[in-house]
């Protein structure tokens, strides 16, 4: 696959807490992307099934990754559902977990 050209890649999942996710590359393989690529482009957090217009390259070890993102195209539903790891501090539609210290003693 040629590297360096802009492509459209569908977001498989993104974990805002951990700051990374994966898109589906043009060859059907998973391609890693980091939150810094979103921040550099001034793009907000993507949801599953959104599309990123991006460039794919390789890191120093030869693994493929998104090197630059230029646009976010919202998928079905327009981003209303936050999906996997999308809710700030939560998991999907679950509320954030408290610390273990907030549990009552047994």
Report what the structure shows.
With 106 residues, the protein is mainly beta. The protein has a domain at 6-78: Nucleic acid-binding proteins (OB fold (Dihydrolipoamide Acetyltransferase, E2P), Beta Barrel). The chain has one helix spanning 35-41, and strands spanning 6-15, 20-24, 30-34, 51-58, 64-73. The protein has a five-stranded antiparallel beta sheet with strand order 3-2-1-4-5, with helices on one face.
User: Which secondary-structure class do the elements indicate?
Assistant: mainly beta
> What is the mean predicted local confidence, pLDDT?
81
Largest sheet: 5 strands, antiparallel
How many H/I helices? Answer: 1
Q: Indicate the CATH class of the domain at 6-78.
A: Mainly Beta
Residues in β-strands, percent: 35-45%
Secondary structure: number of strands: 5
Q: Helicity range of the residues?
A: under 10%
CATH architecture of the domain at 6-78: Beta Barrel
Q: What is the overall silhouette?
A: globular
């Amino acid at each position: 696959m040629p590297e360096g050209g802009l492509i459209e890649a569908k977001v498989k999942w993104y974990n805002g807490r951990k700051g990374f996710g994966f898109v589906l590359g043009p060859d059907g393989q998973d391609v890693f992307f980091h939150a810094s690529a979103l921040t550099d482009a001034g793009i907000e957090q993507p949801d599953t099934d959104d599309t990123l217009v991006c460039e794919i390259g390789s890191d120093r070890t030869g693994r493929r990754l998104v090197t630059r993102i230029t646009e976010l195209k919202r998928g079905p539903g327009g981003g209303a559902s936050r999906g996997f790891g999308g809710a700030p501090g939560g998991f999907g539609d679950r509320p954030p977990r408290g610390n273990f210290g907030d549990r009552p003693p047994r």
